[in-house]
Amino acid sequence: MTGNIAFSGIASGLDTQAIISALVQAESIPINLLQQQKTGNQAKINGLNTFSGLVESLKKKAEELASNSGFLANSVTPSAEGFASFEALGGAADGAYTLEINQLAQADRWSAEGVVDKTTDLGGVNISFDYNGQAIEFEAFSGTSSLEEVAAQLNEEHGDVVQATVINTGDDNAPNYVLVLEGKDTGADYTIQNLDIVSGNGALDVDANLTVAQNAEIVLNGLAIERSSNEFSDVVTGLTFSVEAETPVGAPITFNVGIDDEAIVGSLQEFVNSYNAVMDFIATQSTYDEDKGAGGSLFGESSLRTIRSALSNTIYSSDLVDSTSAYGSIGLLGISLDINGKMTLDSAKAKSLLAEDPDAFADFFVDNDGFDNGGAATGTGEFYVDTSADKGLFSLISQKLDSLLDDQVSTGGSKLDGLLGSRKKTLEDQNTFIDKRIGELEYRLEGFESALVAQFTALEETLAGLQAQQQFLNNVSFGIQTDN
């Protein structure tokens, strides 16, 4: 737009600037309409991004709970504290266990002879040893070979196999600084062998083997078991425990593994919350008030209805519902749905059913035999179909949402964007076209305004010329009359 009009209708008496502004404003109506459309599209894109995040959160929660290990939380109750720490990862067999801890795993540790000053140079230091089949050669040169410098350099060069520390075994009045080398790994296979320490001033030498590398040794339910570390993660399915202290001879501890109904119901409530967040968003977007208008920018968006319908159909899928079982539908398991599709969890009922038959309760929600699509190609509809016998609500929800959100491959082999991605791309493409069209119209509008300015300028100049001629003629006529 020029915006620089240098006349104001002096000759014509017209408010030419106001006339031009009104004409330009009328000509700008198509641009304003396009800008409004772009703003509306961007509001829809923002809304779809928010909705996509809610759906992704629901899908992630369903994926976490789709297996026994993710769904069936367990609790562990030991008979005594301080001997072992336990973590039940889910799916551990219920029961009572007896545990004897006869020996803890430890690393090999060696000390050198002490020195009175950890900062005094030792005239160069050479250290060599074998560790786990690897020969280590270390050298600290004279001038940079104090005990502190040796430990720091050794950790920098060989910290992957040993840890060097300097410990004062004396006191402030009579210090005795000792270099200690400790293997990085515990277990009988990780010994520091053939250790040799030589210093240029002769003050440093190997002193003692402080601790000998050894395995952890336990007896679980009468079975002797060894591990190179103090962690036992592969002994009982779904259970990890770390031993911390030896049990008294003849006095093993016991621990019980059982279903943690609080944790399971808590996970169900988290799923219900994620599910309701999706339904609340859809409901808000779908409302309409005669005075206020649509409830949200996505009013009428079919993608929201598609996802809501898909979730509802999945919950009542024939793959899940079993009219002959007391655990055969979501309603029987303590989760009810209202007319708006929102879920409510009856925690007390769910805990009661868990206590009666945890396996039957879990079977409705989890996929016990795993997902098998029969080798279907990625991106095809069959890729998301489980051909195995067992199904579970959470795995079905996860697969259904994946089939809607993931990119697909058409029968012709071309890529097709997922449901929400496709809709966002359409809106983004529309805005790109609108930007281009607005640019074209603004360019034309600038020309239109310039033409108006030129036309009105010419009009004023013409009128000014005519007025000057009229004045001249009037003056001439007046002079003639005077002469007569």
TrEMBL record:
List UniProt keywords, sorted A-Z: Bacterial flagellum, Cell projection, Cilium, Coiled coil, Flagellum, Secreted
User: Mind telling me which GO cellular component terms the entry cites?
Assistant: bacterial-type flagellum filament cap; bacterial-type flagellum hook; extracellular region
**In the UniProt record, does the keyword Secreted occur?**
yes
Q: Report any Pfam family annotated for this entry.
A: FliD_C
Family that this chain belongs to: Belongs to the FliD family.
| PANTHER family, sorted | FLAGELLAR CAP/ASSEMBLY PROTEIN FLID, FLAGELLAR HOOK-ASSOCIATED PROTEIN 2
- The name this protein carries in UniProt is Flagellar hook-associated protein 2
Q: What is the lineage of its organism?
A: Bacteria, Pseudomonadati, Planctomycetota, Planctomycetia, Planctomycetia incertae sedis
